[in-house]
Amino acid sequence: MVEIGRAIISNDIFEKHFLCDILKCKGACCIEGDSGAPLTDEEAILIEQEYDTFADLLPQKHKNEVEKQGYSLIDEDGDLVTPLVNNRQCVYSYYNDKGILKCAIEKANFDGKTKFRKPISCHLFPIRITEYKRFDAVNYQELNICKPGRECGASEKLPLYKFLKVPLIKKYGEEWYREVEIAAEHLLTSR
């Protein structure tokens, strides 16, 4: 493990390769899991404030669930998360015309309707961050649904930390990410 700032980073972040292959996985990360996407308090507020910028992309069933469950909720573990449809699919996801599950929030962002891209937990996936009082545990969550992403990343020789450069900078800042790059170089040369 590597400690940078308040983050304790698993070696998997440096050693594992990853490049999302959405044409093969079809956006399975928006439908698999035990709960909705983890949210910060600020993200829950933003989703409620920005809902009208992306609601038109959602199927009516999803809009009904937002009316019923709210814009965010506390799950069985006590975590703030996005609501689900049928206890499975993120309520803010929709299928595009190619049968790929997409994020309505991100689509609105790409279309210039909102500055909010999507929850950081989604943007960082398959990295999962657990925040404790004194440190953040930064780990790779290796799931079967992401096998195409591992294969694609291996073929491109793209380490996970490089694939997720933008959201890691968003979470911890550019200086922190430069230290990640230095640590990665050190780990590579010390093998």
From TrEMBL:
* One Pfam family, short name: DUF3109
Instruction: Give the record's family classification.
Output: Belongs to the Rv0495c family.
Question: What's the name of the protein?
Answer: DUF3109 family protein
Tell me what organism the protein belongs to.
Draconibacterium aestuarii
